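User: Fold this; tokens only.

Assistant: Input:
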Amino acid sequence: MRAAISVSILAVCGVVSAQTGVVSPLAQQCSPSLPNVVCINKYASVMPYHFFRNISNATSSPTFGSTSVPNDTSFALVDKADFLVFDQKRGLEILGSEPSYEFIFHVSEAVHEAPVYVPSQNKLYLSQ
């Protein structure tokens, strides 16, 4: 039994050390003057082993920020941010120097299509 446990531990360690393409850091502050804006590097496309997020069900709706990524402490910034930016150059242009938001209306927990902001119209489109 002890040999089987040792082999399993070595196998997991091998996966961790063999993982390639990991984005690091996953998240970072976009600008020192914008502490509530966090940039996500390369869409957090390759997270380090072991990350975890609870599944969605009728009683809970986990968020991107609630993902546990113990091997990248930068990801803790995500849960505290007011704005997440996936394209730093364009995102900071859109947000400006003093980004803020107002609650406009409640949207149910139902599945939604991705909202799309059209700058030329200054409108946000979403479907439900």
